[in-house]
Amino acid sequence: MQEFIYKTKQEMGAAAGLQAAEVIKQTIENKGQANIILATGTSQFETLKALVASPVIDWPKVSMFHLDEYIGLDAEHPASFRKYLKERFVDKVPGLKAVYFVNGYVENPEQECQRLARIIARHPVDVALIGIGENGHLAFNDPPADFETEEPFLIVELDDRCRRQQLGEGWFDALEQVPRQAISMSIRQIMKSLCIIVSVPEERKAEAVKNALEGQVTNMCPASILQEHKNCKIFLDDKAASLLSSK
Predict the structure, then answer these.
(1) What CATH number is associated with residue 73?
(2) How far from 96 is each of 61, 86, 90, 182, CA to CA, in Å?
(3) CB 9 within 8 Å of CB 42
(4) Do 129 and 47 meet the contact criterion of CB atoms below 8 Å apart?
(5) Is residue 111 part of a domain?
(6) How many whole angstroms separate alpha carbon 199 and alpha carbon 47?
(7) How remote is the C-alpha of 156 from its chain's centroid?
(8) Are the CB atoms for 126 and 195 separated by under 8 Å?
(9) From start to end of 88-159, where are the E strands?
(10) Per-residue confidence of the chain (247 residues) as pLDDT tens digits?
């Protein structure tokens, strides 16, 4: 695991996006295509902006998965992650090979998990762009996260701190509006990615960053599992890195 610290979140995002673009480019050169995972949330704004601006990627050779989606929100809801990725990524790059959205607006979310599991089994992930939640979550795997399941996608319960984060970031007008369940990519599925690029800005993430990078590996801080990944690069701004003893 490597750490890279920048003065501003704009510099952090630009560096993370540039790194991701280079990994995707090299993967296409080596394999003829690339499978990627994209996260959402305010932590990814600058990273995705840099990624879509990259001139080095042959996008029609890229297949995209995304990490998670609320159960019960349609794709036009302002907080929908499908809407987020469509507006900030899919509509801004030319002709992706494939886009695999998580659809939480279905009658049977368990069937949606199974559908996605069949697809991702045929698409080993080359690079995942993710963030870390204020409670240390990866995707919507809140503590205590399931470190053992081999299921690629899960129905998960969102804890109150996670739901308050979504409210604080401005996606909802009241806590009561934040769904209590979501479909999330599992911890083990995320860890199967050959390269993981993590973007974490802002002081509100500093405690989670310290616990994830310098604490013990525990499902009470799900992001701590990243310490065990062989090719994980963590991009932080000064505020997110402010509690690190190694800073």
Answers:
(1) 3.40.50.1360
(2) 7, 12, 8, 26
(3) no
(4) yes
(5) yes
(6) 7
(7) 16
(8) yes
(9) 98-100, 127-130, 153-157
(10) 899 999 999 999 999 999 999 999 999 999 999 999 999 888 899 999 999 999 999 999 999 999 999 999 999 999 899 999 999 999 999 899 999 999 999 999 999 999 999 999 999 999 999 999 999 999 999 999 999 999 999 999 998 888 888 888 888 888 999 889 999 999 999 999 999 999 999 999 999 999 999 999 999 999 999 999 999 999 999 999 999 997 6
| pLDDT of 247 | 60
> Which residue type does 107 have?
E
Q: Which residues of 204-220 are buried (b: 16+ CB within 10 A; e: fewer)?
A: ebbbbbbbbbeeeebbe
Residue 247 lies in a domain: no
**Domain span including residue 166:** 2-228
d(CA 63, CA 37): 9
b/e per residue 4-38 (b: at least 16 CB within 10 A): bbbeebebbbbbbbbbbbebbbebbeeeebbbbbb
pLDDT value, residue 16? 96
User: For residue 9, which amino acid is it?
Assistant: K
Strands 68-70 and 181-185: what pairing? antiparallel
For residue 237, give the H/E element and its range: strand 232-237
- In the chain, the number of structural domains is 1
pTM over the 0.85 mark: yes
One-letter amino acid for residue 161 of the chain: R
Residue 95 placed within a domain: yes
If you ran DSSP here, which 8-state letter would residue 69 be given?
A: E
Is 233 inside a domain boundary? no
Structure tokens given for 154: 């899960």
